[in-house]
């Protein structure tokens, strides 16, 4: 031989050596793939999107059954009364209302309309006492509608399982001659507010707190009324009455919504402070309500003495007003005019109506939230979806489904389920883990990977492919020229 | 190929017999005098090998505080038990100890050389002094040792493992190897070539490649013995440190890189500048990348596993997580074992110049950045890149030469290339 | 139905019984002013509200889902603070926000010990229930950050420590049958400013509208040489006490052309007291009278008690109230006192070492009295700076005295996660100066861990010294600034590309060498 050794005769040039080397590279890489997956993958579990959309459609027509039983006295007088009342009610509502004549017995969750001895309309628990002679289909339907189907009211706060009720005594300026040093808020709350909160405990939990402030200036100058030494608040001024910059109102350290009730004591120099109507005339009212926020009562106290402690009796009228405002804010339906309230306020009718109203509200909000979650996840491909989020979405969906098949559920049960569904759906929507990689576009990922992989993996791939091609040729019996 | 004569002499010449002690004495003198304060230098000791961290860990341990409960101490519990019980804590003593450890390393290297040449254990060769000198006076090895970096211990253990493997002393080799793995997890790369070396022979077969000659059936029993020693040391470590927190603090550190102190390697700046989201991925890539070389190199050089370990030392010097100068230093020194490949080195001048370039730039830029404050981190980073290139070039040279030698000398009119 | 109404009636009657308790709140305000020997004037406002017979919440009543909580009825006690205390079941809370360095040697003991630079928050909490102490601590930080508009959220795990001895509870720990734990964090670069003062004033019953608080004029407060506010909540068997205080050191010499130390409320605060706070039980001003020099104090003190003149603001003021001292002559700073200290010990703490990777922490303590003194020394050091405790030395006049350091407790720092806590007792012989030093190493941070102004350096928290003679009189050593080595913040992609290219080059070359075949090529003659 003329030249150097024939390279193909050298041991390490053998094909099997080369192939096993290439294979050993690939084995390590393949073994590392799970690690790659583990270190880079964004946990993105699939959400039951189609079910969420289907559920949202299904709940458009979410209905709750209402059974009303007319006493036989009514049906005796007018056979078709029940049917007529039902027709009138059904036209105006999304509820599955059935009105029937009495069969002599009342079922557990139905409402009874009984003849009244007197001329007044009286509500007692789930029983309505209605004067027989007045009982025409339209009048009865109207009265029933007010109990069963409360109107949508923009003043009502959004549903929350827990509210914080914050009662504040605000002295506008306590160095102006008179100061309300203290008020017996806890007693006032116990007498006037707690009956309501305990009656509504099936709907909400409440945290109650009270405070007093000694300097709570207004952000504007009230109007001085020409006649009698009085000051007035115009309707425009009422909208900017709350001076949140200066008044330290409950900031709520938790996430529960706060309802504020303010007892405002104007400074001695600005008394009496009256609320004006649109024409600028003083009204008799000393209180007003700020929709979805709270209520305010203005207390024009007598001039003397200079230091006052407001007792429970002093606070009676203010707290009665607060209790009415609370009922309004929470959406407890008002009884139609002419109806007399029972001793107990709110009545079973009202609470049931509120339960229905809130349950429907919750169902709608839940399916909206779920739909938003699902579409958000669909829109942003980089958004991580953890197990918690998926479970929350699933459980919320499960709760919604159980509501659709809720034929034998009590109203409180329905509300509790809808509340759980809402809470779960919101927990999923606001889960902080979903924000992790919102700002990491895909291009960025490639820019980071390319420098290493483009230059390191390509030779490996090419070598592997060449070997595969050579091996296939060999198998076909074609002699591969060596060297 | 004409075999050069490393003529074995049954008796060393007078000058040769004194050469080794003399070299050690010079080393000891320098270590005792300590002309510079090198203990802090990041290039000579990493957080995993720093003498100060070792001292701090021993101090904490002696005062009843678990040194592994924080991020200060990342040495193996073996060091902890060794230094807190047996060895007095004095700087002079440490200087002596480190010099002795280097002397032992040089001794091991000489014996590897002898084993490779097929000389008897007590037979001297004319190159012995050169081999020892290459180890004792390589500045990359010398300076970390003066700085009392425990990487000197790791080098010594690595060389001892190779020496025993070359001499077919199975248990001793495996024991040394398990000590090595305990003190430095990245040495896992060396496990395969050392085990295979035990099964084959250390002689040079570079010029005449052949299939692996050893008996692979013995491999499982070797592996089992190794695991036995290794787990014994692990249990001992747990007992010494009173828990298993040391695992994440020592081995975990070279996988997760919690301490970003600059060193001569590629990891520290890469992970200083890494986006948080990609950190785990690239840590994984860098760790796996280190392992990927073992099998191919061992397969290719299955006829000369000493050469395979030599190449892998080079890889470790470039790519391990917390390298010091002594890691590439060991690779450079080991060139002395393979004089037969010298004629076939591809670009030795370029490689040498790159090394020279890097070894001047690195201390300069390190100083400019951290001490003078006139440079910034990029300066030092750039010089570590040059250093990586220099080490890479050396590894590529070694690979080329190790393979090329099999083709014999180039004849007129013929060119050898890779397809 | 009847059952419910009887329940309601029962509820009513039970709350009637509580009626008297709810009103048991007491508010007192107090201002003390003293002239300092270097001519400056230290004023300290103190507003205390006592909520009688209240007790801290038991953490076992807390739970994530249903925090069934008793109603909270307050008149004087600040509701917004009360909510936070109840929500996280805090037994004792101390928050101070200060700016400047309290000069112990010439100003002496501050009226409130919490004068450390920047923000400092510490709380004692009972450990029990489902919500962990750390979880509540995190909630507390965030809630207070929101309440005071301060970046207390940055007092995270990397700054939170639990020192065992330096911060004993200042009130009483209630016996709930639970262990109590402390959490402490400080942030030296968070300074007090107007946006923190406004929420502070809102916690006061009379805000800044009347009473002593009406003197708190932000323009003057934040112009003072040193100023700081503190919020302290503690419990003792009387009830829960909220103590709000504001301290400042103003310099009357600065605006005046002559070196006269004269001051009055009007000159210090640019305000006088127009109205008294109607709900304050007492509203007192106390002026400590100078021990030397000719001076006149106007108006006539209502009472004199030792060296202190007291004024009591009644429930109504006939005319605006102002008080001041005028000196006959110019201020003479007694040169003999220039080097003497008003404190039992003088402290200096410095970080030495010019390089960006290591340094030496040096603390010099001088015992100004003749008797041996034991001092508790606390360092809460972020992991940026790591101690080498084996290099600790103690010297007196150059003589090593390592026997003077004892009872060391050390919690190691964990990089990227937890700071170091180092507590030890130093013994200082009478009239001696002790030099304590320890080597430190500076950490190298990820580029995302650096603040936006990385080159400025990091403020290290102050060290705390507690003389054993008075365990409540903490002293703060000044904060330190440490400069850490910074990476190039514009480099991430460059580094990825450079490093990856080098790796790929070496990888590719070795791969080629190992897999490609050698060939022998015959060159034609003549080439």
Low-confidence stretches of chain B: 1-5
| Rg value of chain A | 36 Å
Q: What letter string, H or E per element, gives the SSE order of chain A?
A: HHEHHEEEEHEEHEEEHEEEEEHEHHHH
Residue share in helix of chain A: 40-55%
Oligomer: heterotrimer
Keywords (chain B): Endoplasmic reticulum, GPI-anchor biosynthesis, Membrane, Transmembrane, Transmembrane helix
Transmembrane segments (chain B): 12-33, 92-110, 130-153, 173-199, 226-247, 267-293, 305-325, 345-365, 377-401
Pathway (chain B): Glycolipid biosynthesis; glycosylphosphatidylinositol-anchor biosynthesis
GO cellular component, one term (chain B): GPI-anchor transamidase complex
Task: Describe, in short, the structure shown.
The complex is a heterotrimer of chains A (483), B (419) and C (527). Chain A is an alpha/beta fold and 483 residues long.
Describe the model.
- Chain A is 42% helix and 17% strand.
- Chain A has 483 residues and is of the alpha/beta class.
- In chain A, helix 4 packs across helix 5, helix 6 (185-199) runs parallel beside helix 8 (316-330) and helix 9 crosses helix 10 (387-404).
- A two-stranded antiparallel ribbon of chain B has the order 1-2.
- Chain B has helices at 14-33, 51-62, 77-86, 91-117, 128-136, 139-146, 151-166, 170-183, 191-199, 219-241, 245-256, 267-272, 279-292, 294-300, 305-319, 326-334, 348-372, 377-404, and strands spanning 8-9, 124-125, 414-418.
- Helices cover 63% and strands 2% of the residues of chain B.
- Helix content of chain C is 17%, strand content 35%.
- Chain C has helices spanning 2-22, 79-87, 104-107, 133-148, 194-202, 218-221, 265-269, 492-515, and strands at residues 25-35, 41-52, 72-73, 90-99, 118-126, 160-161, 180-187, 226-236, 239-250, 263-264, 282-288, 295-298, 303-305, 308-312, 324-327, 345-352, 358-367, 373-381, 385-396, 399-400, 405-411, 420-428, 433-442, 458-460, 464-467, 475-476, 480-482, 518-522.
- Chain C starts with a helix and ends in a 5-residue tail after the last strand.
- Mean pLDDT of chain C is 86; it is low at 1-23.
- Classes of the chains: A alpha/beta (483), B mainly alpha (419), C alpha+beta (527).
- Chains in contact: A-B, A-C, B-C.
- At the A-C interface, helix 1, strand 7, helix 6, strand 8 and helix 12 of A face helix 1, strand 3, helix 2, helix 4 and helix 8 of C.
């Amino acid at each position: 031989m003329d030249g150097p050794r024939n390279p193909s005769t050298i041991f390490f040039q053998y094909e099997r050596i080369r192939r096993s080397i290439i294979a050993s590279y690939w084995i390590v890489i393949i073994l590392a793939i799970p690690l790659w997956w583990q270190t880079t993958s964004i946990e993105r579990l699939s959400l039951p999107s189609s079910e969420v959309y289907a559920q949202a459609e299904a709940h458009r027509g979410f209905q709750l059954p209402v059974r009303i039983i007319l006493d036989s006295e009514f049906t005796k007088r007018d056979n078709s009364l029940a049917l007529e009342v039902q027709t009138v009610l059904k036209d105006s509502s999304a509820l599955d209302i059935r009105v029937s004549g009495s069969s002599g017995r009342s079922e557990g969750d139905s409402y009874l309309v009984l003849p009244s001895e007197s001329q007044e309309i009286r509500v007692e628990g789930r029983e309505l006492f209605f004067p027989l002679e007045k009982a025409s289909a339209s009048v009865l339907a109207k009265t029933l509608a007010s109990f069963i189907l409360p109107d949508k009211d923009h003043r009502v706060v959004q549903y929350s399982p827990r509210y914080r009720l914050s009662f504040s005594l605000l002295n506008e300026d306590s160095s102006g001659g008179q100061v309300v040093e203290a008020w017996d808020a806890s007693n006032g709350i116990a007498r006037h507010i707690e009956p309501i909160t305990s009656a509504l405990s099936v709907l909400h939990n409440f945290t109650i707190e009270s405070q007093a402030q000694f300097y709570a200036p207004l952000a504007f100058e009230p109007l001085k009324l020409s006649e009698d030494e009085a000051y007035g608040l115009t309707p425009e001024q009422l909208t900017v009455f709350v001076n949140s910059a200066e008044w330290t109102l409950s900031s709520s350290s938790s996430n529960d919504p706060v309802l504020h009730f303010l007892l405002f004591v104007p400074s001695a120099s600005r008394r009496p402070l009256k609320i004006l109507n649109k024409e600028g005339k003083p009204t008799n009212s000393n209180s007003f309500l700020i929709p979805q926020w709270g209520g305010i009562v203005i207390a024009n106290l007598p001039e003397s003495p200079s230091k006052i402690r407001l007792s429970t009796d002093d606070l009676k009228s203010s707290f009665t007003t607060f209790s009415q405002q609370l009922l309004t804010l929470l959406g407890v339906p008002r009884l139609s005019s002419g109806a007399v309230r029972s001793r107990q306020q709110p009545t079973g009718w009202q609470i049931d109506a509120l339960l229905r109203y809130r349950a429907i509200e919750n169902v709608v909000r839940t399916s909206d939230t779920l739909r938003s979650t699902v579409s958000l996840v669909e829109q942003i491909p980089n958004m991580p979806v953890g197990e918690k989020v998926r479970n929350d979405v699933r459980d919320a969906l499960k709760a919604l489904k159980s509501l659709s098949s809720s034929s034998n559920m009590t109203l409180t049960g329905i509300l509790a389920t809808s509340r759980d569904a809402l809470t779960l759906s919101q927990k999923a929507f606001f889960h902080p883990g979903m924000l992790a990689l919102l700002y990491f576009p895909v291009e960025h990922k490639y820019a980071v990977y390319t420098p290493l992989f483009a230059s390191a993996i390509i030779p490996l791939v090419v070598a592997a492919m060449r070997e595969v091609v050579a091996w296939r040729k060999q198998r076909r019996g074609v002699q591969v020229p060596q060297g | 190929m004409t075999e050069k004569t490393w003529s074995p002499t049954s008796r060393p010449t007078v000058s040769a017999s004194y050469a080794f002690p003399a070299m050690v004495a010079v080393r000891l003198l320098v270590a005792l005098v300590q002309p510079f304060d090198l203990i802090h230098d990041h290039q000579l000791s990493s957080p995993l090998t720093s003498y100060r961290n070792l001292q701090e860990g021993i101090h904490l341990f002696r005062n009843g505080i678990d040194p592994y409960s924080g991020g200060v101490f990342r040495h193996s519990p073996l060091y902890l038990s060794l230094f807190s019980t047996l060895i007095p804590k004095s700087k002079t003593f440490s200087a002596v100890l480190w010099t002795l450890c280097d002397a032992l390393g040089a001794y091991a290297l000489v014996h590897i050389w002898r084993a490779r040449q097929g000389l008897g254990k007590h037979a001297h060769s004319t190159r012995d002094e050169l081999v020892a000198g290459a180890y004792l006076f390589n500045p990359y090895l010398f300076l970390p040792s003066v700085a009392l970096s425990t990487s000197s211990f790791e080098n010594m253990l690595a060389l001892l493992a190779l020496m025993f493997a070359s001499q077919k002393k199975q248990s001793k080799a495996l024991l040394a190897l398990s000590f090595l793995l305990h003190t430095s997890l990245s040495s896992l790369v060396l496990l395969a070539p050392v085990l295979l070396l035990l099964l084959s022979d250390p002689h040079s077969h570079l010029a005449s490649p052949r299939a692996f000659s050893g008996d692979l059936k013995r491999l499982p029993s070797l592996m089992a013995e190794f695991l036995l020693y290794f787990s014994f040391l692990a249990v001992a470590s747990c007992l010494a440190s009173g828990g298993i927190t040391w695992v994440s603090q020592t081995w975990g550190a070279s996988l997760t890189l919690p301490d970003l102190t600059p060193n001569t390697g590629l990891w520290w700046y890469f992970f200083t500048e890494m986006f948080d989201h990609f950190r785990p991925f690239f840590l994984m890539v860098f760790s796996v990348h280190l392992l990927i070389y073992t099998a191919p190199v061992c397969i290719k050089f299955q006829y000369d596993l000493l050469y395979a370990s030599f190449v892998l030392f080079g890889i470790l010097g470039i790519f391990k997580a917390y390298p010091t100068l002594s890691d590439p230093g060991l690779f450079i020194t080991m060139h002395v074992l393979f004089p037969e490949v010298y004629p076939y080195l591809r670009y030795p001048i370029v490689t040498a110049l790159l090394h020279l370039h890097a070894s001047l730039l690195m201390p300069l830029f390190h100083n400019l950045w951290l001490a003078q404050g006139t440079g910034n981190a990029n300066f030092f980073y750039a010089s570590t890149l040059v250093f990586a290139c220099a080490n890479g070039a050396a590894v590529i040279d070694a690979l080329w030469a190790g393979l090329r030698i099999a083709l014999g000398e180039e004849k007129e009119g013929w060119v050898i290339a890779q397809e | 139905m009847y059952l419910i109404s009887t329940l309601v009636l029962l509820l009513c009657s039970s709350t009637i019984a509580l009626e008297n308790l709810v009103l048991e709140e007491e508010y007192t305000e107090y201002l003390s002013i003293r002239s300092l020997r270097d001519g400056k004037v230290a004023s300290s406002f103190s507003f205390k509200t006592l909520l009688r017979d209240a007790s801290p919440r038991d953490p076992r009543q807390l739970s994530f889902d249903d925090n069934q909580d008793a109603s909270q009825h307050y008149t004087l006690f600040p509701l917004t603070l009360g909510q936070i205390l109840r929500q996280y079941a805090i037994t004792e809370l101390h928050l101070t926000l200060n700016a400047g360095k309290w000069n112990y040697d010439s100003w002496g003991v501050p009226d409130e010990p919490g004068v450390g630079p920047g923000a400092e928050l510490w709380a004692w909490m009972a450990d029990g229930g489902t919500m962990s102490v750390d979880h509540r601590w995190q909630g507390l930080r965030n809630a207070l950050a929101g309440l005071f508009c301060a970046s207390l959220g940055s007092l995270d795990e990397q700054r939170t420590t639990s020192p065992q001895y330096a911060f004993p509870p200042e009130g009483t720990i209630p016996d709930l049958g639970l262990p109590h734990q402390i959490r402490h964090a400080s942030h030296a670069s968070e300074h007090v400013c107007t946006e923190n003062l406004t929420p502070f004033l809102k916690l006061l019953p009379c805000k800044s509208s009347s009473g002593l608080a009406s003197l708190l004029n932000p323009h003057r407060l934040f112009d003072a040489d040193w100023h700081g506010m503190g919020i302290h909540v503690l419990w003792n068997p009387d009830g829960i006490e909220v103590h709000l205080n504001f301290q400042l050191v103003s310099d009357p010499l600065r605006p005046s052309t002559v070196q006269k130390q004269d001051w009055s409320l009007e000159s210090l605060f640019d305000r006088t007291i127009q109205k008294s706070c109607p709900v304050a039980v007492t509203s007192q001003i106390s002026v400590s009278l100078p021990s030397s020099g000719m001076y006149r104090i106007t108006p006539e003190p209502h009472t004199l008690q030792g060296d202190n003149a007291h004024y009591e603001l009644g429930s109504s003021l006939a005319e605006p109230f102002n008080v001041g001292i005028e000196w006959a002559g110019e201020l003479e700073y007694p040169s003999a006192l220039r080097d003497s200290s008003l404190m039992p010990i003088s402290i200096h703490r410095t970080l030495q070492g010019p390089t960006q990777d290591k340094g030496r922490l040096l603390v010099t303590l001088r015992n100004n009295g003749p008797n041996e003194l034991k001092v508790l020394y606390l360092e809460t050091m972020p992991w940026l700076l790591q101690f080498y405790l084996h290099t600790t030395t103690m010297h007196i006049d150059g003589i090593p005295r390592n026997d003077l350091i004892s009872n060391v407790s050390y919690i190691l720092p964990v990089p990227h996660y937890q700071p170091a806590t180092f507590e030890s007792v130093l013994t200082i012989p009478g009239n001696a100066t002790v030099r304590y030093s320890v080597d430190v190493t500076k950490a190298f941070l990820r580029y995302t861990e650096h603040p936006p102004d990385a080159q400025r350096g990091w403020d290290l928290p102050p060290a705390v010294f507690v003389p054993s003679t008075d365990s409540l009189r903490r002293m703060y050593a000044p904060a330190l600034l440490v400069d850490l080595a910074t990476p190039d913040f514009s480099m991430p992609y460059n580094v990825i590309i450079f490093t990856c290219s080098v790796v790929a080059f070496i990888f590719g070359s070795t791969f080629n060498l190992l897999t490609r075949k050698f060939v022998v090529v015959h060159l034609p003659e003549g080439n």
